[in-house]
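Notes from the 1:1 (GR / supervisor)

We went over the backlog. Supervisor wanted to see one worked example end to end before approving the batch request, so GR pasted a single chain during the call. The sequence is below; no edits were made to it. Supervisor asked that the structure be written out right there so they could see what the output format looks like.
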Amino acid sequence: MESTFLTSIIDAKEDGDVVSTDVPNAFIQTPVPDDNKKVTMKITGVLVHLMVEQAPEVCGPHVVHENGKKVLCVAVLKAPYGMLVSSLLWCNKFKKDLEGCGFVFNPHDPCAANKMVNGKQHTIRFHVDDLMCCHVDPKINTEFLKWLNSNHGTCGEVKATRGKIHEHLGMQFNYSKPGCVIIGMTKHMKAMVDDFPMKLKPSDTTPMPAASDPFAKGDSPFLNKEQAEVFHTFVAKALFACKRTRPDMQPTVAALCTRVKEPNQDDWNKLIRL
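Structure output shown during the call:
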């Protein structure tokens, strides 16, 4: 996040051409290393029927039954979504690809890299398959997009956003004001209010998100299971926001995070205040 914010400020000051994009189906383009440690996936349920239907001669002979259910065990050749190591495998592959065309990675952040092109810095920062890059010459980004599609567009076109406004990592980056970048999460915050089960009126406002003693547990009744799940969900949504563009909420969210296991009515009221 620090690299994303800091480099975005530099982009604004230099009035650079900013491009944001994500690589479609990045994981499925990432081979699992052949290091004699075969990764096996156990497939059950409807997916077994679908795979046999698509490739009966390949999958059919290997279907077995366990407790009356069809099971298919397969060796994983490409990194699937859901496997813990998939993100790391993709990032290592992408890093190697970028280094192969001259990018040098920041020693303090493995997801930020630079390359000098025509005497100016071409900066890339990425989170898994979501990336943002900038160079003062738009032609350099155009060439980079061609390279992205050539190397990582085999499972879908790498589509890019260009211009002054970008959606990246759940945030909006607005470069409309010269020399300045405005980073916000208005859509996320509005969705939190709109999706909250208790509808709040425009008059339901408070000058600050924290109560007088946010860590006080109180002796009010515990929330029921359904309400406790809502509490946990919206604290998580607030945590996502406060670690990005809403640091003013951090003290309150920190207190609420300690209450997600056994929230009571007092905690609910604190969430409403937030």
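Supervisor's comment: The first strand starts at residue 17 and ends at 22.
Batch request approved.
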